[in-house]
TrEMBL record:
Species assigned in the record: Noctiluca scintillans
Annotated residues for binding of ATP: 89
Alphabetical list of SUPFAM superfamilies matching this protein: Protein kinase-like (PK-like)
Protein name, per record: Protein kinase domain-containing protein
Sorted UniProt keywords: ATP-binding, Kinase, Nucleotide-binding, Protein synthesis inhibitor, Serine/threonine-protein kinase, Transferase
PANTHER family: EUKARYOTIC TRANSLATION INITIATION FACTOR 2-ALPHA KINASE EIF2-ALPHA KINASE -RELATED, MITOSIS INHIBITOR PROTEIN KINASE MIK1
UniProt similarity note: Belongs to the protein kinase superfamily. Ser/Thr protein kinase family. GCN2 subfamily.
GO biological process: negative regulation of G2/MI transition of meiotic cell cycle; negative regulation of translation
């Protein structure tokens, strides 16, 4: 009867759940064993091969903390041999497998002008406790949210190029990103992803914070800006590009609307809602950048696969994304928008012809020159 069938079905489902839970537990145990084996291997290697080489490469007198996370610390310093600024990631031996993966993916993606370059990898032993003292100072100054119970004495170090104009998120936070800058970021990141996808690589962590900017001539605030995709820590050898596609689309959405990346989770069924918000944000665009800006909804539909599906190489080659300078779009005559919007990076004319960037709070945009000087790191 029906009750018997339901009882048998429940029993089978419970059995499947128990089996799945057991398999998951065994997988986690194997993973922990592999991590522990990897850690023991790197400890053995570091015991015989680690050296204070980092202090010979970097000038520790000018080193400063840029950020920190689960896996380690990121510092800016200068190379002793050339005095050029560089970035170094320090990961404890516990996370050596993470560093190894990031380094290997960076080598596979090497050669793309729109991906941050990794130059060296090495094992460093903190013989004179310089890093320990630096981290303690950072904690005392409030730059580290928590104090480490015990500082590692050996690190895996990845050295990367330094990008001197911060991240796209920095520019969004200060209402600096002009339409031309947004279009250039879109094409540059699409170029980086097309390059990776051609090599069966995926990035998996695309967001405004991971798109870095630099200017070769720091004395000229209008010097052209170079755009590069950074942080290959989650990159993988894969043909599943779905994560790259939705993250790229949400990065474009955030640049167009001013919303902070991660404020809302992306769901494919809600893609039309995000597209509609972009349409609303750009409805008053005018000037030279108006045509490509108005094509954003069509492009987003293609990226998210809710319209004619696009590959990253097609986004890279999108006609309206070609040839823009980072500072294009700072217009003195822009059609005024009477309707309040939650946020957009597109300029709007105020009384007197000055340019305003709409954001969560409508404020007068500071001059590019002053803002750039304050962002130099």
């Amino acid at each position: 009867n029906t009750r018997t069938i339901l009882t048998e079905t429940d029993a089978r489902l419970l059995d499947v759940q128990r089996t799945s839970a057991l398999q998951l537990q065994r997988t986690e145990e194997r993973f922990e064993e592999e991590i522990e084996s990897c850690l023991q291997f790197w400890r053995s290697v570091a015991q015989t091969s680690a050296s204070p080489q980092l202090s010979k490469i970097l000038d520790f007198d000018v080193i400063e903390l840029l950020g920190h996370g689960k896996y380690g610390f990121v510092f800016k310093s200068r190379r002793r041999s050339s005095d050029e600024p560089i970035v170094v990631k320090l990961l404890s031996l516990r996370w050596a497998h993470v560093a190894a993966k990031e380094w290997s993916q960076a080598q596979l993606a090497k050669g793309c002008p729109h991906i941050v370059e990794y130059s060296e990898a090495l094992l460093h032993v903190d013989e004179n406790h310089a890093i320990q003292q630096l981290l303690q100072t950072c904690h005392e100054q409030g730059h580290l949210s928590r104090s480490l119970a015990g500082y590692p004495d050996k690190y895996v170090c990845l050295i990367e190029e330094f990008m001197n104009r911060g991240t796209v998120q920095d520019w969004l936070d200060q209402d600096l990103l002009l339409p031309g800058g947004m279009l250039k970021v879109m094409r540059s990141v699409a170029s980086a992803l097309a390059y990776m996808h051609q090599r069966s690589l995926t990035h998996n962590d695309i967001k405004p914070e991971n798109v870095l900017l630099s200017q070769e001539n720091e004395d000229d605030p209008r010097a052209e800006v170079t755009v590069k995709l950074a942080d290959l820590g989650l990159a993988a050898k894969s043909r599943d590009r779905s994560q790259d596609m939705w993250q790229y689309g949400m990065t474009v959405f955030c640049m167009a609307t001013g919303e902070k990346f991660g404020t809302r989770k992306f769901r494919l069924e809600e893609a039309p809602v995000f597209v509609a918000e972009v349409e609303d944000a750009i409805s008053y665009s005018d000037g030279d950048t108006a045509t490509p800006i108005r094509e954003l909804p069509q492009l987003l539909r293609g990226v998210w696969g809710v319209g004619e599906e696009l590959q990253m190489k097609e986004v890279r080659d999108w006609p309206s994304l070609q040839g823009w300078s980072f500072f294009d779009g700072e217009l003195k005559e822009v059609k005024a928008c009477q309707k309040l919007r939650r946020g957009t990076v597109l300029p709007r004319r105020l009384n007197g012809g000055e340019v305003l960037h709409m954001s969560k709070h409508s404020v007068r945009r500071v001059s590019v020159a002053n803002a750039l000087s304050s962002m130099t790191v």
